[in-house]
Amino acid sequence: MKKFVNEPSNFVHEIMEGLVLANPDKLKYVPDYNIIYRADMPRDDKVSIIQGSGSGHEPAHIMLVGQGMLDAACPGNVFAAPPMEYCYECTKLMNSKKGVLHLINNYQGDRMVWDMAHEMAEADGIKVGVVIIDDDVAVQDSTHTVGRRGVAGNFFVIKACAAAAEQGASLEELVALGNRVNSVVRTMGVALTSCTPPAKGEPIFDIADDEIEMGIGIHGEPGRRRAKLQAADAIVDEVFQAVASDLPFKRGDQVSLMINGMGGTPISELYLLYRKAALNCKNSGLEVVRSYVGNYCTSLEMAGFSLTLIRLDDNLKRLLAAPAEIPIRVF
Amino acid sequence: MKKFVNEPSNFVHEIMEGLVLANPDKLKYVPDYNIIYRADMPRDDKVSIIQGSGSGHEPAHIMLVGQGMLDAACPGNVFAAPPMEYCYECTKLMNSKKGVLHLINNYQGDRMVWDMAHEMAEADGIKVGVVIIDDDVAVQDSTHTVGRRGVAGNFFVIKACAAAAEQGASLEELVALGNRVNSVVRTMGVALTSCTPPAKGEPIFDIADDEIEMGIGIHGEPGRRRAKLQAADAIVDEVFQAVASDLPFKRGDQVSLMINGMGGTPISELYLLYRKAALNCKNSGLEVVRSYVGNYCTSLEMAGFSLTLIRLDDNLKRLLAAPAEIPIRVF
User: Fold this and answer.
1) Residues A18 and A121 occupy one common structural domain
2) Same domain, A179 and A194
3) Residue B85 lies in a domain
4) A162 touches chain B (CB under 8 A)
């Protein structure tokens, strides 16, 4: 296992310590429940927005905690849902008179713990709203999922809801908004390589030197098919077709286009992929009004990418362009 | 070769096309000379700042072109200096009454082409200033270098000079500032894996599954020693000691600390490395006033990192905190 790691059981804990050391004024950390939260939250005049899933998808979600994005995150171990008590304690910690919004990727483990935390928090008198994210078009059901998986499209649900929350939206409005965003966002991913969780010490699946997995899940779940490695443009064509035909996106639609890296793919290759995806948008009559190229939802050091399209309206364009400040910044 | 690539000879060109497609209002591209430049530059009331080195180090330098950073970049092929005419044409294109600043990493190939472009531009009546960057403490001379190599510390020279240029500094002031920044910044890197330039199709060096290269160059040049893979904290300790003892940094210094990814290392591991480096700063009496964690100067998909320290004064703190807007953004 070639990784920068100490004792594998401390992997997640040490990442979170590093994140808080790098942002001492803005973030706080509760080690007992793996909670990273904004130092200036909760506030009774703003709905709190929280998320917690398995680790290994960084920057999702601990590095998306900040003004105009998440208020708190409580990850589990690598590729494992957080324990229920993390979700419950995180909800209590972020309790606001306006309520707490749970954003949940559609995996059985995540849904179970958040459902229980939701019930317990409501029994405590906390107002809780829920949005389930399931943007992955690759497969219908999957290894850890009934229905579609939640992947990089998650970013848009967070950004839109968080921007609206900063502007004073109610919990009910945010649930409606989150569901609406989820209904117009579609994603599919591809893997060139597997990845190795530190505690496991070996790759989560095998893939030959000349193969790619089309429709990969973010925990290595199988996709649509195992294919021979092709030229980048041909790979983009297949992924674009799968994503664009699903909603379907139509000539004249205004969209955002995201090329998300899976963790081990250099940004140079992501822009090379973006090039073909942007040309495909143009040829399909889709107008890209805002682009995203980088690592948003990863699988440790996996080499791969996902392509996300989201159909925009004026309100959504405004929300996506709202200011935000998160720990991972270039400057 | 497992990469997202089409025809290898089009690799750099297609990345640049993708970058401009993603930033149609802000960037322009001159394919004949591989120049990416700010659509709103040059201006006669601001010194233009340009850089061009081999490709494969993205975001350096094409993705650092934007307000408050570079005005233009003209990369060569992967790990190859740009042809002299790219440098000359880039200088002419960015000609300003206040002059053009060349920021050059200390490699023989880069210095030669930029020296020639400098002479030719001056013969045309263009005012040119030069700053050479050589922040890598690993080795004295190297495969492509007489003297020290220029690596991730480059970022700080760009940021400080660009901020001062936006505030109206003269070419002479910027040369003095750039040299001063370079004199207080120190870096050393480590590689877990090699990397594969698309046109070469195979790794640029071999490294065993249980080995790391301490002091790696950004083109795979040998470092100080080949070591057995150790715990992350032990690796950070060795790199930190090499960097901190070189200036040397002293108890009471205010610094910025950068953990730069080499391209294939996930951001989770970078924050785990940052944790130990930040603790070492604290134990050494160095006050970290601004932190940087991410990919700044990479080697394609290499797994590895570098650690940079820079000693700050009030002026430098102000310049590093100045606003900037570059193509690679999270939102």
Assistant:
1) yes
2) no
3) yes
4) no
> Which residues 36-55 of B have a C-beta within 8 angstroms of A?
55
Q: Which of A140, A166, A183 is the last residue of a domain?
A: A183
DSSP state of B62: G
Cβ A18–B320 below 8 Å, yes or no?
Answer: no
Q: Is this complex's ipTM strictly greater than 0.85? A: yes
Q: Decide if A203 touches B, using CB distance below 8 A.
A: no
| Residue A43 CA neighbour count, 13 Å, CB half | 11
Query: Are residues A234 and A103 part of one domain?
Result: no
Which of A183, A200, A217 is the last residue before a domain boundary? A183
Query: What's the CATH code of the domain at B64?
Result: 3.40.50.10440
Q: Pinpoint the alpha helices (H) of A134-216.
A: 154-166, 171-183
Q: What one-letter code names the amino acid at B134?
A: D
Which residues from chain B sit within 8 angstroms of residue A159, using beta carbons? 331
CA angle, B219 as apex, B155 and B163 as ends, to 5°? 10
Residues of B within 8 A of A233 (CB-CB) are 6
Asked whether A137 and A243 are in contact (CB, 8 A), the reply is yes
B55 in Cβ contact with B78 (< 8 Å): yes
**Cross-chain residue pair A267–B295, CB shorter than 8 Å:** yes
Whether B264 sits inside 8 A of A269 (CB atoms) is no
Q: Is B3 on the interface with A (CB under 8 A)?
A: yes
Beta carbons of A275 and B5 less than 8 Å apart:
no
DSSP state of B263: B
B120 CA: distance to closest CA in chain A (Å) = 31
- Candidates A104, A115, A121; CA nearest to A54 is A104
Q: Domain of residue B110: give its range.
A: 8-183
List the pLDDT tens digit at each of the 331 positions of chain A. 899 999 999 999 999 999 999 999 999 999 999 999 999 999 999 999 999 999 999 999 999 999 999 999 999 999 999 999 999 999 999 999 999 999 999 999 999 999 999 999 999 999 999 999 999 999 999 989 999 999 999 999 999 999 999 999 999 999 999 999 999 999 999 999 999 999 999 999 999 999 999 999 999 999 999 999 999 999 999 999 999 999 999 999 999 999 999 999 999 999 999 999 999 999 999 999 999 999 999 999 999 999 999 999 999 999 999 999 888 766 6
CB contacts < 8 Å between A and B, how many?
A: 187
Q: In chain A, which residues have their Cβ closer than 8 Å to the Cβ of B271?
A: 15-16, 18-19, 22, 58, 63
